[in-house]
Amino acid sequence: MSQHHLKHTTSTWFRTQGHGMPLAMVALCAMLGTNAVWAVDPNVKQLRIGFQKSSINFAIAKQQKLFEKEFPNAKITWNEFPAGPQILEALAVGSLDIGVTGDTPPVYAQAANKPLYYIAYESAKPLASAILIPKISKLTNLSQLKGKRIALQRGSSAHYLVVQAVRKAGLKWTDITPIWLAPAEARAAFQKGAVDAWAIWDPYYASAQIEDQAKVLTTGKGLSPNYTFYLASPNFLKQNPQAVKSIIQQINLADKWVQSHKTETTSLIAQGTGLKTNVSKVFIDRRPSPSYAAPLTAKVIADQQQLANRFSELQIIPRPINIQQAVWQSK
């Protein structure tokens, strides 16, 4: 699909779907304007993007060179990371301009006084993360996690999922033994039986389900909304304050394409990540549709503040934080 056609169909969607549109999308339309075809932004000179295997909209934008077309004078670089904490570390030290993460990494970063701003979010996807157990496990409920070893990435969305699961089970955080591992290492430990459970998100979740016959002890439903967030460095925003609109616009053009090209997206994600096609399909099918990027709403900020408060209460982060202070306000 051409860039012009992508823009035209997305603009048409905005016009025809407006009456039933969520508040976030109404805000997005107001933010982006109503022109059928948006002009490219010639002012951005550099755009360094951090993404993960779970970043479907970024993957499609990369494949179709949407940012390259939107920012014709910029040097665009794409950098893949295993998880959100690593992306925000790179953002904080000035190696990236924008990145995409789950809900917990920006809370960790803000609590550590690392510079960042939330610029957009995607719809909650609680079914896209889970606490998995081996196919031979006898565990059947969360309370049985007491005394168990759970693999997870520290500071990731899986971290919050485990915090919430432990709380729901009536256990204390000290009742479990967290084993801090990045996804690849956690998968190896899970396969070897070195841990009793693994808290993880898609597509690693889908891969373990299909290839390892992992069982689901719980998903994020009722525990964690599991939002996706787009974040930017303060320096990039200071130098390119109008670029946020263009960035969100391109993310949403990619998502619009995904919605109408599920089969092609499945193949592209499989090719780009090395996932098997059936794993890629489960991953994409579990993703909310649409998954547009939009400015943070009051509810999203409140949900994120609850996460931060929970981590502060448990002294997982060193101090209380105010999420609103890290939300970018476009001029």
From TrEMBL:
InterPro entries: ABC_SsuA_sub-bd, Solute-binding_3/MltF_N. Residues 46-261 form the Solute-binding protein family 3/N-terminal domain. One of its GO terms (molecular function) is ATPase-coupled transmembrane transporter activity. It comes from the Bacteria. Keywords: Signal, Transport. GO terms for cellular component: membrane. Part of a binding-protein-dependent transport system for aliphatic sulfonates. Putative binding protein. Belongs to the bacterial solute-binding protein SsuA/TauA family. This is Putative aliphatic sulfonates-binding protein. It comes from Acinetobacter stercoris.
